Amino acid sequence: MRINANFSQFCAVKAEKYQWVKSPQNGVERVMLDRVGAEKARATSIVRYAANSYFPSHTHPGGEEILVLSGTFSEQTSDGIKHDYPAGYYLRSPSGSEHTPYSKEGAVIFVKLWQMSPSDDQLIRLNTADPSLWRQEKDRENCLLFKNDHEQVSLERLKPGASLFNSKFSGAEILLLSGALTSEKTRYKADSWLRLPSGYPENFYAGEEGALCYLKLGALGNTTLSSIDE
Q1: How many angstroms separate the CA atoms of 222 and 102, rounded?
Q2: Where do the ChrR-like cupin domain residues begin and end (predicted)?
Q3: Range of the structural domain that residue 81 is part of
Protein backbone atom coordinates (compact mmCIF):
# COMPACT_ATOMS: atom_id res chain seq x y z
CA MET A 1 0.00 0.00 0.00
CA ARG A 2 1.29 3.44 -0.93
CA ILE A 3 -0.45 6.66 0.11
CA ASN A 4 1.22 10.03 -0.52
CA ALA A 5 4.43 8.03 -0.79
CA ASN A 6 6.41 10.35 -3.08
CA PHE A 7 8.32 12.45 -0.57
CA SER A 8 9.66 14.76 -3.27
CA GLN A 9 6.16 16.14 -3.90
CA PHE A 10 3.94 18.53 -1.96
CA CYS A 11 0.82 16.96 -0.51
CA ALA A 12 -2.00 18.13 1.74
CA VAL A 13 -5.03 16.52 3.36
CA LYS A 14 -7.72 18.90 4.59
CA ALA A 15 -9.95 17.89 7.51
CA GLU A 16 -13.04 17.75 5.29
CA LYS A 17 -11.23 15.16 3.14
CA TYR A 18 -10.46 12.77 6.01
CA GLN A 19 -11.32 9.17 5.16
CA TRP A 20 -11.71 7.11 8.33
CA VAL A 21 -10.75 3.46 7.87
CA LYS A 22 -11.32 0.70 10.41
CA SER A 23 -8.16 -0.81 11.85
CA PRO A 24 -7.79 -4.55 12.58
CA GLN A 25 -8.78 -3.76 16.19
CA ASN A 26 -12.42 -3.05 17.10
CA GLY A 27 -13.10 0.53 18.11
CA VAL A 28 -9.97 1.97 16.51
CA GLU A 29 -10.13 3.92 13.24
CA ARG A 30 -7.51 5.87 11.35
CA VAL A 31 -6.94 8.38 8.60
CA MET A 32 -3.93 7.37 6.54
CA LEU A 33 -2.04 10.56 5.70
CA ASP A 34 1.00 8.87 4.22
CA ARG A 35 1.89 5.22 4.16
CA VAL A 36 4.40 2.82 2.65
CA GLY A 37 3.39 -0.75 3.46
CA ALA A 38 0.36 -2.66 4.73
CA GLU A 39 0.10 -3.30 8.49
CA LYS A 40 3.88 -3.31 8.81
CA ALA A 41 4.27 0.20 7.44
CA ARG A 42 6.14 3.44 7.53
CA ALA A 43 3.05 5.47 8.34
CA THR A 44 1.69 8.85 9.36
CA SER A 45 -1.90 8.72 10.60
CA ILE A 46 -4.66 10.28 12.66
CA VAL A 47 -5.97 7.52 14.93
CA ARG A 48 -9.28 7.59 16.81
CA TYR A 49 -9.85 5.35 19.82
CA ALA A 50 -13.44 4.80 20.92
CA ALA A 51 -14.06 4.62 24.66
CA ASN A 52 -12.67 1.40 26.17
CA SER A 53 -10.82 0.40 22.99
CA TYR A 54 -7.26 -0.88 22.88
CA PHE A 55 -4.52 -2.50 20.84
CA PRO A 56 -2.81 -5.67 22.07
CA SER A 57 0.73 -5.42 23.39
CA HIS A 58 3.28 -4.83 20.64
CA THR A 59 6.78 -3.54 20.02
CA HIS A 60 7.92 -0.70 17.77
CA PRO A 61 10.93 -1.87 15.73
CA GLY A 62 11.09 1.52 14.00
CA GLY A 63 9.93 3.72 16.86
CA GLU A 64 6.69 5.62 17.40
CA GLU A 65 5.87 9.32 17.74
CA ILE A 66 2.51 10.49 19.13
CA LEU A 67 0.79 13.81 19.79
CA VAL A 68 -2.47 13.47 21.75
CA LEU A 69 -5.04 15.70 20.03
CA SER A 70 -8.13 15.10 22.19
CA GLY A 71 -9.38 12.88 24.99
CA THR A 72 -6.97 10.81 27.07
CA PHE A 73 -4.63 8.26 25.53
CA SER A 74 -3.20 5.59 27.84
CA GLU A 75 -0.61 2.85 27.73
CA GLN A 76 0.64 0.01 29.84
CA THR A 77 4.39 -0.28 29.43
CA SER A 78 6.44 -3.47 29.53
CA ASP A 79 7.04 -3.00 33.27
CA GLY A 80 3.29 -3.31 33.90
CA ILE A 81 2.81 0.35 34.85
CA LYS A 82 -0.16 2.25 33.37
CA HIS A 83 0.20 5.84 32.19
CA ASP A 84 -2.44 8.39 31.15
CA TYR A 85 -1.77 11.20 28.67
CA PRO A 86 -4.43 13.90 28.19
CA ALA A 87 -4.63 16.13 25.12
CA GLY A 88 -1.40 18.02 24.51
CA TYR A 89 1.02 15.26 25.49
CA TYR A 90 3.89 14.44 23.13
CA LEU A 91 5.26 10.88 23.26
CA ARG A 92 8.36 9.58 21.54
CA SER A 93 9.18 5.87 21.95
CA PRO A 94 12.41 4.53 20.42
CA SER A 95 12.97 1.42 18.32
CA GLY A 96 12.34 -1.71 20.36
CA SER A 97 9.96 -0.09 22.84
CA GLU A 98 6.87 -2.06 23.86
CA HIS A 99 3.44 -1.10 25.19
CA THR A 100 -0.29 -1.85 25.27
CA PRO A 101 -2.13 1.30 24.10
CA TYR A 102 -5.74 1.99 25.05
CA SER A 103 -8.23 4.69 25.97
CA LYS A 104 -10.94 4.57 28.63
CA GLU A 105 -12.75 7.76 27.61
CA GLY A 106 -11.75 7.84 23.94
CA ALA A 107 -8.94 9.75 22.26
CA VAL A 108 -7.67 11.08 18.95
CA ILE A 109 -3.92 10.97 18.36
CA PHE A 110 -1.46 11.90 15.62
CA VAL A 111 0.92 8.97 15.05
CA LYS A 112 4.13 8.41 13.12
CA LEU A 113 5.55 4.86 12.85
CA TRP A 114 8.83 3.38 11.56
CA GLN A 115 10.47 6.79 11.06
CA MET A 116 13.22 6.83 13.68
CA SER A 117 16.90 6.08 13.31
CA PRO A 118 18.12 3.03 15.28
CA SER A 119 20.48 5.42 17.08
CA ASP A 120 17.54 7.55 18.26
CA ASP A 121 17.08 6.02 21.70
CA GLN A 122 15.35 8.81 23.62
CA LEU A 123 12.12 8.08 25.48
CA ILE A 124 10.17 11.34 25.67
CA ARG A 125 6.94 12.20 27.50
CA LEU A 126 6.19 15.95 27.41
CA ASN A 127 3.09 17.77 28.60
CA THR A 128 2.91 20.75 26.25
CA ALA A 129 0.39 22.39 28.60
CA ASP A 130 3.36 23.15 30.87
CA PRO A 131 4.12 26.89 30.36
CA SER A 132 7.79 26.36 31.22
CA LEU A 133 8.27 24.43 27.96
CA TRP A 134 7.31 27.42 25.82
CA ARG A 135 9.65 30.13 24.58
CA GLN A 136 8.48 33.60 23.60
CA GLU A 137 9.63 34.96 20.25
CA LYS A 138 8.75 38.08 18.28
CA ASP A 139 5.81 36.71 16.32
CA ARG A 140 5.15 33.40 18.06
CA GLU A 141 5.54 31.05 20.99
CA ASN A 142 7.61 27.92 20.46
CA CYS A 143 7.61 24.58 22.29
CA LEU A 144 10.56 22.40 21.25
CA LEU A 145 9.61 18.71 21.40
CA PHE A 146 12.67 17.02 19.91
CA LYS A 147 15.83 17.89 18.00
CA ASN A 148 18.78 15.94 16.59
CA ASP A 149 21.07 16.21 13.56
CA HIS A 150 18.32 15.00 11.20
CA GLU A 151 15.07 16.55 12.37
CA GLN A 152 13.44 19.09 14.64
CA VAL A 153 9.91 18.78 16.05
CA SER A 154 8.06 21.63 17.72
CA LEU A 155 4.72 23.28 18.37
CA GLU A 156 4.46 26.79 16.94
CA ARG A 157 1.81 29.21 18.20
CA LEU A 158 1.78 31.99 15.61
CA LYS A 159 0.37 35.47 16.06
CA PRO A 160 -2.08 36.66 13.38
CA GLY A 161 -0.27 37.26 10.10
CA ALA A 162 3.01 35.68 11.24
CA SER A 163 4.94 33.59 8.71
CA LEU A 164 5.53 29.95 9.59
CA PHE A 165 9.02 29.76 8.07
CA ASN A 166 11.74 32.30 8.73
CA SER A 167 14.55 30.39 7.00
CA LYS A 168 15.15 27.69 4.40
CA PHE A 169 14.30 24.11 5.36
CA SER A 170 15.05 20.63 4.05
CA GLY A 171 11.46 19.44 4.01
CA ALA A 172 8.64 20.13 6.46
CA GLU A 173 5.52 18.50 7.83
CA ILE A 174 2.65 20.47 9.37
CA LEU A 175 -0.43 19.46 11.33
CA LEU A 176 -2.61 22.50 11.94
CA LEU A 177 -4.02 22.10 15.44
CA SER A 178 -6.10 25.29 15.61
CA GLY A 179 -6.60 28.53 13.72
CA ALA A 180 -5.80 28.84 10.03
CA LEU A 181 -2.85 29.00 7.66
CA THR A 182 -2.84 30.61 4.24
CA SER A 183 -0.49 30.34 1.29
CA GLU A 184 -0.63 32.35 -1.92
CA LYS A 185 -3.31 30.04 -3.29
CA THR A 186 -5.00 28.18 -0.44
CA ARG A 187 -6.43 28.59 3.05
CA TYR A 188 -6.08 25.66 5.45
CA LYS A 189 -8.32 25.18 8.49
CA ALA A 190 -7.67 23.30 11.72
CA ASP A 191 -6.80 19.59 11.37
CA SER A 192 -5.27 20.04 7.92
CA TRP A 193 -2.04 18.12 7.31
CA LEU A 194 0.65 19.24 4.87
CA ARG A 195 3.99 17.83 3.76
CA LEU A 196 6.45 20.09 1.93
CA PRO A 197 9.51 18.79 0.06
CA SER A 198 12.92 20.39 0.34
CA GLY A 199 13.05 23.60 -1.65
CA TYR A 200 9.30 24.21 -1.55
CA PRO A 201 8.95 27.88 -2.57
CA GLU A 202 5.83 29.04 -0.71
CA ASN A 203 5.54 30.28 2.85
CA PHE A 204 2.45 30.04 5.05
CA TYR A 205 0.90 32.74 7.20
CA ALA A 206 -1.34 32.58 10.25
CA GLY A 207 -4.91 33.74 9.78
CA GLU A 208 -6.73 36.46 11.70
CA GLU A 209 -7.13 34.19 14.73
CA GLY A 210 -3.50 33.04 14.65
CA ALA A 211 -2.47 29.40 14.30
CA LEU A 212 -1.15 26.54 16.41
CA CYS A 213 0.88 23.98 14.45
CA TYR A 214 2.82 20.78 14.95
CA LEU A 215 5.92 21.31 12.81
CA LYS A 216 8.55 18.77 11.81
CA LEU A 217 11.59 19.94 9.84
CA GLY A 218 13.78 17.43 7.99
CA ALA A 219 13.78 13.60 7.92
CA LEU A 220 10.52 13.38 5.97
CA GLY A 221 11.38 10.24 4.03
CA ASN A 222 13.04 8.41 6.91
CA THR A 223 12.12 4.80 7.48
CA THR A 224 13.71 1.92 9.34
CA LEU A 225 11.78 -0.68 7.36
CA SER A 226 14.16 -3.13 5.71
CA SER A 227 11.32 -4.86 3.86
CA ILE A 228 7.77 -3.71 3.19
CA ASP A 229 4.67 -5.83 2.70
CA GLU A 230 2.67 -3.78 0.24
Answers
A1: 27
A2: 11-116
A3: 18-127
